[in-house]
Amino acid sequence: MGTTHACTGVLAGVVVAAVFGAHPSDLFISAAVGAGAALLPDLDSPESTVGRSLGPVSGAVSWALSGLSAVVFRASGTDRDRRSGVDGRHRALTHVLPSCFVFGVVAGVLSLWPLGLGLVAGGLAALGISTIWREISEATAREARATATVLAVLLAGIAVWLPGGAPWLVGITVAVGALTHVLGDWLTYSGVPLTWPLVVGGQRWRRYRSPIPVATNPDSVAEAWVRRGSLIVAGGVAVLSEVPLPL
Question: What is the value of pTM for the model shown?
Answer without folding.
Answer: 0.89
